[in-house]
Amino acid sequence: MKKEKILVVEDEAKILEVVTSLMEKQGYEVYQAEEGKQGLEIFNNNEISLIILDLMLPDISGEEICMKIREKSRVPIIMLTAKIDEANLLRGLDIGADDYITKPFSLMELVARVKVILRRSSDELKPLYKYNSFQNGDLYIDVESNIIKKKNELLNLTQSEWKILLSLIKYPNKVFTRDELVTIALGSEFDGYNRTIDSHIKNLRQKIEDNPKSPSYIITVFGKGYKFGGE
Ligand code: CA
Description:
By secondary structure, the chain is α/β, with parallel strands linked by helices. Helix content is 40%, strand content 21%. It contains eight helices and twelve strands. The strands form three sheets. It has a five-stranded parallel β-sheet, with helices on both faces. It starts with a strand and ends with a strand. 27% of the residues are buried. Bound molecules: calcium ion. The site of calcium ion (CA) has 5 residues, from loops.
């Protein structure tokens, strides 16, 4: 089986070394960065499965790195912080990290968290973050500001279309049945024929797909429903 790749971004040489050998012993392939920019570069050029990211780095902060990565990726991130206060503060800010570990940490604890998160990310739903861009920016979605762009041009979606699209994107591995989408998009009070969803999907595809007849974003899963296939 292919080794999963873990990126460790940490400027304290000793911690970097300890964490690296710990992860290697667990069978992971480890990439090291002592600075933020270097970490981002490694991330951009390799298929990293998980990042262990120190908050305080000499160039750009772990917080900023985390947000940069979240603009385009859902890769799991474990933040290392020096104080519990920082961890709590960051949690409140919701910068998109999956977990926080306070230094000094137990090595067994770190291993346990890494394993849990990797397992979760491989077979569970991956949540959506504030911004998402798909297929090299062909489709850009800013959830908080309700902005959606196709090839840099603003699109107008109806409320139902928007809700359907966000639901699909939020859980990219999940196949949604028509009933689920009806509940999400039209509310549970809706008592109609669930094929209504098909017409919303058709309209959505007209707006976001290059070729609505051969969609690359909203995929029909035959006999089941729809899923998002945008990455
Ligand atoms: Ca540091």
